[in-house]
Specification:
Elements (H helix, E strand, L loop, with lengths): L1 H6 L2 H20 L3 H7 L4 H22 L4 E2 L12 H4 L27 E3 L4 E3 L4 E3 L4 E3 L4 H24 L8 H7 L1 H30 L3 H6 L4 H4 L13 H10 L6 H12 L2
Antiparallel strand pairs: 1-3, 2-3, 4-5
Helix pairs in contact: 2-4, 4-6, 6-8
Length: about 270
Amino acid sequence: MFKKVFRSGFLVRSGHTVLTWLITLVLFLHDTDLRRCEEEGELMQPVAFSLLVLLSVLLYFTVSLMDPGFILTDSVQAPPGVSEEQEAMLPQTTAAPRLRRCGYCLLQQQPMRAKHCKACQRCVRKFDHHCPWIENCVGEQNHCWFLLYLLVQLGALAWAFHLTLSGLSWSPVEWGPWLKAHSVLLGCAGVTGVFSAVVLVLLGCHLYLAATNTTTWEFMSRPRIAYLRNWGDGEENPFDRGLLCNLWDFFCVCRAVAWERVYQRAHRSDHA
């Protein structure tokens, strides 16, 4: 029973939510800028911070619970709003490697850029990685939302870190009493500081991936991926259409993409 609850992501999501609101409550109860603004009747900063935290929690659950691009059947059914023509698999030609067969969920034709996730036990379109933080895969349908969540979360964490520092008094006193008086705020500063650094690194990495139209899996496992290993000099990316086009596709194209078509167009232009 407990194993099933843990696998469902309930503990991870509950822990994230409780920790988020617990730190927010600490910042309001201690003598921080939030508390001082509230006492002076200046509610702009407390309201703005609360809304930013609420937005980060809503985005967290959006990314955590939404379908990342699971492939449910061998016929590769299209998500709602996607036509069959967009989803149709291309005939195999010498321009593209043969589509793989998934040995886990027994798909006869695994779409290009898809990968089986052992944690979710499904194949995921344009698989990036399985994130234990959100207890869900990051794939074609939720990658842009994941990046947006990281941006908002970084803003909330950095602001919270600044607020914890505003509650610390730096007057010269003995270390023992000072640490005891500020132990809670110091704990919050440690948590928000560490997570700010982690989220900043993740945000930078995923902005780079979005700008180059690649995924974490492709970046880390390129020598083992047939359609990348055999392309060009081994360093080029057949899906890279330039910075602006890559960012437009990442943030604005809200549909499943037949990457086999993109690959074949890149192959034809490369050999033109």
